[in-house]
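User:
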Amino acid sequence: MKISNLKAVKILALLNVTLLTVCVFIIILLQFIPHNLYLTPVVIVISVLLSVLLLRIKYIEIDESAACLTIRKIHPFAKKGYVSPIAEFPKTAIRHFEIRNHIFGKRMKIIIQSRSITKRFQFNLFLFRKKHLNQIINVLRMLQR
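Assistant: Predicted structure:
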């Protein structure tokens, strides 16, 4: 079963590209029109912030298959194909998980243990719908048993 926030992140990325395009057109337009000197730097700062957001935005895909749990972060405009996972571990290694509320969404912490090694993974569950969050919780509860 695959659970992801692809649709919401693609909408956010397309909105970001649209706003970035509008900012570039405003910068070009401001070169030909006499204006206030403070407007151009403000638009440039907004454009830079939108560019950084566009480069950093990624959707999370949680894949629960026969023997392992795989978590990937993928850019919404990335080419189709194999993307190496951030975390991939056997289902039996999950010892504890929790999902907490934060300012901009929820954060998931997973603790896995195999033999003598204990690892922690943290992921922001930004733009996940309540339905998807419930699916993630149900999958992790089944795997924890």
